[in-house]
């Protein structure tokens, strides 16, 4: 296992992120699933310069992106988007695309269970075929019920993976597991060899080590099932706007160049634009919590 991180949680140049994570012992990055933001040659050069490899990318399933959409054209555009993320990962020599099939924040279905299941299976199969041709693995990620109505538990993600291909896997996230599973360790065991990626945030969605999750037991269970991929940092720090705020200087007050869709995605997760000092500290704490357990 090795330590990786997402980078969608803060709007900053990729070079800044890579310098930060290198000093704390991260080995790879699961890059934001927005291919139009990254020139492949420039990104490859930056990764090489900082000695960080691309582990993969996560789909940012926001706006109209939805593999289970009722509208056929919307589904087709969503498939094209996922394919573009897969292509980017392949061109960056990455291994994984974490696929969130339905729109994040959408909690009301569009159709019957049978209709949605057919739509999402067919769309995911098309994405999987493209990924296989590009040498990239697909890992379906379930989210908690407050972010999506469709896939919340490991068993549900595995059902979709099974319907797609024996070579399709899942990604589990400790934060979501803690909300949705009867026993998060059994959920990891259920995924077993089909576990292709694992995301890391504590029960309060701050950095690992700042909440109540038992990280030694989580990592031990990952070792038990033979998991040897990334533990990918994905804290999404909730903002406290009251006088009780524990981190009063966490919110960036200066203007930030960020696409409105990305800002909305961050805010919909209960977070905000984070200061560099706060973000850096969360990165450090995650590394100090996880690295001793996996080395």
Condensed summary:
Keywords: Isomerase. This protein is 43% helix and 14% strand.
Walkthrough of the structure:
The structure is a single chain. The protein is an alpha/beta fold and 295 residues long. Strand 2, helix 2 and strand 3 (53-59) form a beta-alpha-beta unit. The mean pLDDT is 96. The chain has helices at residues 14-23, 40-50, 72-91, 113-134, 154-164, 174-180, 184-191, 215-224, 260-268, 276-294, and strands at residues 2-6, 28-33, 53-59, 96-99, 137-140, 169-173, 195-200, 230-233. Strands 1-2-3-4-5-6-7-8 form an eight-stranded parallel barrel, surrounded by five helices. It is globular and about 45 Å long. It comes from Ferirhizobium litorale. It holds the Pfam family AP_endonuc_2. One of its GO terms (molecular function) is isomerase activity.
Q: Structural class from helices and strands?
A: alpha/beta
Give the termini distance in whole angstroms.
8 Å
What is the arithmetic mean of pLDDT? Answer: 96
Strand content: 5-15%
Secondary-structure element order, N to C: EHEHEHEHEHEHHEHEHH
Low-confidence stretches: none
Count of discrete alpha- or pi-helical segments spanning 4 or more residues:
10
Structural key phrases:
295 residues, alpha/beta, eight-stranded parallel β-barrel, 10 helices, 43% helix, globular
């Amino acid at each position: 296992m090795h330590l990786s991180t997402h980078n969608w949680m803060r709007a900053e140049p990729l070079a800044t992120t890579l310098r930060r994570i290198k000093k704390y012992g991260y080995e790879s990055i699961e890059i934001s699933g927005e291919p139009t933001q990254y020139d492949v040659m420039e990104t490859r050069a930056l990764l090489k310069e900082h000695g960080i490899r691309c582990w993969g990318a996560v789909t940012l399933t926001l706006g109209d992106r939805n593999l289970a959409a009722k509208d056929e054209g919307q589904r087709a555009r969503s498939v094209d988007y996922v394919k573009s993320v897969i292509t980017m990962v392949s061109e960056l020599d990455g291994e994984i695309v974490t696929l969130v099939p339905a729109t994040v924040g959408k909690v009301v279905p569009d159709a019957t269970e049978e209709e949605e299941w057919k739509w999402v299976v067919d769309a995911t199969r098309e994405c999987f075929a493209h990924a296989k041709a590009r040498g990239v693995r697909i890992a379906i990620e379930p989210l908690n019920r407050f972010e999506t109505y469709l896939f919340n538990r490991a068993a549900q993600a595995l059902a979709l993976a099974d319907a797609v291909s024996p070579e399709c896997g899942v990604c589990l996230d400790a934060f979501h597991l803690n909300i949705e599973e009867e026993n998060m360790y059994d959920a990891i065991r259920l995924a077993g060899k089909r576990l292709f990626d694992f995301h890391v945030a504590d029960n309060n969605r701050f950095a690992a080590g700042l909440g109540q999750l038992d990280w030694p037991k989580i990592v031990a269970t990952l070792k038990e099932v033979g998991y040897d991929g990334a533990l990918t940092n994905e804290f999404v720090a909730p903002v406290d706007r009251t006088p009780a705020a524990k981190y009063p200087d966490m919110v960036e007050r200066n203007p930030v160049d960020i696409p409105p869709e990305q800002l909305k995605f961050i805010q919909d997760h209960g977070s905000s634009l984070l200061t560099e000092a706060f973000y850096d500290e969360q990165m450090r704490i995650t590394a100090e919590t996880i690295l001793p357990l996996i080395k």
